[in-house]
Write a structure and sequence with these properties.
275 residues, alpha+beta, Immunoglobulin-like, Ferric Hydroxamate Uptake Protein, Chain A, domain 1, five-stranded mixed β-sheet, 16% helix, elongated, disordered C terminus
Length: 275
């Protein structure tokens, strides 16, 4: 018998397990947008079985900061798989030596979709843009023009708002970002002059290619025709803005949201009558 009452085989097994534990490391990292460097929350990261024969270590979902973490990963070669909606999947080989922990940066690129060339000529409705040109020439607020949008070609509208003085752009799951103004408050949002209630994520409402211009105002700098908001407001003007329907209280044009609200109201009436 060997010390501790173990047999020689049991002692060897204990020493082997101790060596395995000593060779296990932590594998962590961040999944980011290759073009902007912005973290990607909700991305899927997997360590699958590789050519070394080691079993896979499962799958992790990145947090709001795009971070993931694998504990106690044995030294081996794994198949690294990373995916996120709207991005090309990454598939690579990861060698874990067991010498030290790993902290990885995993960039994902958008997946291009080949399309036939399309030439579109569109002009915003004069009524929808009423007052915008006057305010732009007056130099009040932070303004993004159509020319800037075409030049920068952003994936999200909020990518245009990183330079807002006193503003901070933060991730908003499941995708997109939210602009916070001074005091980390959430400004109101107007699309084609119509106030949106219950939403602070522009990226889930409108895409950059549909936007003609954006205005941002802090607190009481918000133009009086849009009411009062202590945090301020974001005014988004779309390429398809239409005049407000008769009787609608909107001084700055129609809304892409209006038809949806009417449809929702009609469904509600049908459900009530059907009971």
């Amino acid at each position: 018998m060997w010390p501790g009452g173990w047999t020689r085989g049991e002692l060897a097994a204990q020493e082997e397990r101790a060596a395995d534990r000593a060779s296990q490391v932590t594998v962590e990292g961040t999944v980011v947008d290759h073009e902007t460097g912005a973290p990607l929350p909700g991305a899927t990261v997997s360590l699958a079985a590789g050519p070394s024969g080691a079993r896979g270590r499962g799958t992790r979902i990145t947090d709001e900061g795009g971070r993931f973490l694998f504990h106690d990963v044995p030294a081996a070669t794994y198949r690294l798989l990373v995916s996120s909606p709207g991005f090309r999947e990454m598939a690579d080989t990861l060698h874990v030596s067991g010498a030290k922990d790993l902290d990885l940066i995993l960039p994902l690129s958008t997946d291009p979709i080949p399309l036939e060339p399309i030439i579109v000529t569109a002009e915003p409705s004069p009524m929808a843009m009423r007052g915008y040109e006057r305010r732009r020439r007056g130099g009040g607020g932070f303004v993004v023009t159509r020319e800037e949008i075409l030049e920068r070609r952003p994936r999200y509208v909020t990518e245009l708002l990183h330079r807002v003085p006193g503003g901070t752009v933060v991730p908003t799951p499941p995708h997109g970002y939210t602009l916070l103004l001074r005091g980390q408050c959430r400004p109101g949002i107007w699309i084609d002059g119509v106030r949106l209630v219950g939403s602070s994520n522009i990226d889930q409402l409108v895409s950059p290619q549909d936007v003609e211009a954006v205005e941002v105002y802090h607190g009481f700098e918000l133009p009086v025709e849009f009411g009062v908001n202590s945090c301020g407001g974001i005014l988004v003007w779309t390429r398809t803005g239409a005049p407000p329907p008769p009787g609608r209280e909107s001084d700055a044009g129609g809304s892409i949201i209006g038809p949806l609200l009417k449809a929702a109201a009609l469904v509600a009436v049908i459900l009530v009558l059907g009971r």
